[in-house]
Design brief:
With 95 residues, the protein is of the alpha+beta class. It has two helices and five strands; from the N terminus they run E-E-H-E-E-E-H. The strands form two sheets. Strands 3-5-4 form a three-stranded mixed β-sheet, covered by helices on one side. It has a two-stranded antiparallel sheet with strand order 1-2.
Length: 95
């Protein structure tokens, strides 16, 4: 089961859960997480306001903690597209 939350680490009544058992999309996410080599931080210091993101993922073969502020890894859009495909069944979309 995958928990999706708008709030960092704090369970909320607004959390949504996605059953990932046997999901091919989940397998694609796991392959991505096991093979990505993201840095810990991505920053664009020339933008004062904008978009921040964070990924924390831990499992067999991977432990990722990455954060960005107006800057992203090269394959970030690919990752978001893969996650969105998985989350669509719960009506969740990451912009």
């Amino acid at each position: 089961m995958l928990r999706c939350s708008e709030y960092m680490g704090v369970p909320s009544e607004n959390d949504k859960f996605v059953n990932v058992d046997g999901s091919k999309d989940w397998e694609m996410v796991l392959v991505f997480l096991k093979t990505c080599a993201w840095q810990k931080r991505y920053y664009d210091n020339f933008i004062c306001d904008g978009t921040q993101w964070e990924l924390k993922a831990k499992g067999v073969g991977f432990n990722i903690k990455s954060y960005g502020s107006n800057s992203y890894p090269d394959n970030f859009k690919e990752f978001v597209a893969t996650i969105n495909k998985l989350l669509a069944v719960a009506g969740i979309r990451i912009a």
